[in-house]
TrEMBL record, chain A:
One of its GO terms (molecular function) is 4 iron, 4 sulfur cluster binding. Pfam families: Fer4_18 (PF13746), Fer4_5 (PF12801), FixG_C (PF11614). The keyword Ribosomal protein does not apply. It comes from the Bacteria. Keywords: 4Fe-4S, Electron transport, Iron, Iron-sulfur, Membrane, Metal-binding, Transmembrane, Transmembrane helix, Transport. The chain crosses the membrane at residues 42-62, 89-110, 163-181, 201-221, 344-364. The lineage of its organism: Bacteria, Pseudomonadati, Pseudomonadota, Betaproteobacteria, Burkholderiales. This is Polyferredoxin. Residues 261-289 form the 4Fe-4S ferredoxin-type domain.
From TrEMBL, chain B:
Its cofactor is heme c. SUPFAM superfamilies: Cytochrome c. The lineage of its organism: Bacteria, Pseudomonadati, Pseudomonadota, Betaproteobacteria, Burkholderiales. Pathway: Energy metabolism; oxidative phosphorylation. This is Cbb3-type cytochrome c oxidase subunit. Component of the cbb3-type cytochrome c oxidase. C-type cytochrome. Part of the cbb3-type cytochrome c oxidase complex. One of its GO terms (cellular component) is plasma membrane. The keyword Repeat applies. One of its GO terms (biological process) is oxidative phosphorylation. GO terms for molecular function: electron transfer activity; heme binding; metal ion binding; oxidoreductase activity.
Amino acid sequence: MSNSTQPDGGNSAARPDEIEISLYADRQKIYPRSVAGFFTNWRWAMVWLTQIVFYGLPWLQWNNRQAVLFDLEERRFYLFNLVLYPHDLIYLTGLLVISALALFLFTAVAGRLWCGFACPQTVYTEIYLWMEKLVEGDRTARMRLDQSGHTLEKYGKKTLKQLLWIAFGLWTGFTFVGYFTPIEQLWLAVWQAELGPWQSFWILFYGFATYGNAGYMRELVCKHMCPYARFQSAMFDRDTLVVTYDAQRGEPRGRRSRQADLSLLKLGSCVDCSLCVQVCPTGIDIRKGLQYECIGCGSCADVCDQVMDKVGYPKGLVRFTTQNGLEQGWTSAQMWRRVLRPRVLAYGAILLLITVALFTSLYLRTPLKLDVIRDSTILSRVVQQGYVENVYTLRMLNATEQEQPLRLVVHGLPGLQVISETEFSLAPTGARALAVTVRVPPGSSAPGMHPIHFEVQSLGAEPMTVRQDSVFMMPRQ
Amino acid sequence: MSDFTSYFWHYYVAGLTLISILACLGLLWYASRVKVTPTKDNTTGHVWDEDIIEKDNPLPKWWVWMFIITVVFALVYGLLYPMFGKFPGLLNWSSVGQYQAERAANEARVAPKFEAFAQMSVQQLAADPVAMQIGESLFMNNCAVCHAADARGSLTFPNLTDKDWIWGGDPEAIKVSITQGRVAVMPPLAEAVGSPEDVLNVAHYVLSLSGAPHDSVRAAAGKANFATCIACHGAEGKGNYLIGAPNLTDDIWLHGFGVDAVVRSINEGIMNVMPPQNVLLSEQQIHVLTGYVWAKSNPPQ
């Protein structure tokens, strides 16, 4: 980007070498040309994959309920067979750590793979661009349309495009809210105009965010807002795959006739067709080297390969390669050998470890929670015949979707008996606080605190047991 | 903000806030165009660490708009919400007001449920699982602090699960106890009873009433002086619901078991207070709570 400098007009008092400039630059609208090829096919595959999951998942049913539902009001998170509660937050932490490490790993190996192929910003921009192209045509047609005067065709096309964009944004917002409120009811509510204020707000807000980000902000989000773009260069090294222009082969660039003999022209392979610039969604020229705006989408590589094919030169003037690979002229097999370097191995090992730990812990998780809270005021009391009683509150939570008949067993002191009810049940995904009175005969233990153990056993179809330690207090005489 | 005697600080804070916001806007405007000596290579001329040069690129225009939007947002926010000193804002929002609104909304939400409970008798409530669940949480939040989570009380806090009542255990009496609270007073009676020896004898007599371990000779000697206690505890020591005099003939000892505890009660008297709950709970809540407490001593057969 260059300074939008303007010569100083009327102010004659200024020093002759000084000029007045604006500190703020207008945005140059980018009209990416559509492209086809290997990387583009992969990007579209990722668009389909991510969006089928995103739009389809909330409609899936499981156990007579939505398979994936984050019920914020009830504070329950349903994931197929799993019901998670706020105290299972550690799993979310684990998921975020896994995501971060996966990002590090992919970045170390292949640069901004996430940015160019799976990031929602890229995916929705791709979809919105496709709709734009559908209505207004490709790059040159769009530029011509924008520069044309007030014609009926222009307004018709613009309106149609807006309608498509808005409809898609609203559908996205609706789907998003469908993850937090049962989507089938939400669908009915939309048609019966019975949406709640927050449901309406989030559908509109998320819809607007999709529309604004994918329709208008586009590369601005990647260049100025995305935090990931800021620190990912820390994961790059000389063996990271990046989109690169092979300057040694391409320079000096220049136009030439197809019949011309390359060896006589003293020209490189680059025919200076500028297609790589036209297809770039962030509007950069890859031939200037690696730049922070490059999201690694490979569009320039795709289009350059086509041009190379047409002019009869070998492909790969712009390609995914590593800095080492480019400088040493390595083959892809040689580059692959450098993939397994300590940084990648370390990321991979930690990623594997945490992933295994998370899933093991999820598998071993007992869907029954027990907390034993000693009564806050009654430390200990002596009742008739000198029996000593302690009071506890059991907080229990049933994380399964079946009713759980339960039995309480307490042990740890001679003659200990529970004089409140010991058999009770917990409703499906229900929680309950239960007061429990534990009694021991007079003089059966020394004064002071004694460890005792609470055990709640499920008598249901799936036997499970949760244990919790507490203490029993014998008063001093 | 009643901590200050004058409004000076209100105006100071409000003025400073407003001036700061507007100064931000002024700075943006002032710095939007500058006069510089241009460099040929589009850098500022600064070089760090030998080879790091600073490019001189303009800020994107959207950033300016974002800046202006934040200023507008701040002003609108300050107009709607209490941000400028003592100005309460056009929405008249306050955290206390929000608390009250949320509480009122919650009460309106549960009102139909309590409305239905109000039509039921205490006995019917005791048989209603939903009422008992609500009663349980009311008890845990308001009563368990003294009477323990299992309602069996402790020293000086009565057990609510037995049949022994100090102020009466029928639904009406329980409701009055919860609503108005209770103050039970036994004056120090050592002088009225007589010498320390007499007090000891009366204590043994009191223990004998329920068949608790006692010295029968002393008990017999103390019988005459028990006359002092009859006014409240009755001739047979069975107590009196009207003034909250406990029954001395059961083996339940609210203020401690044994001779020493009884002697201390006679010598020092007793002052036992249950605070009224109608300041915290509504009449309908107390009705449900009464059902829960009644059910504790009258468990379903």
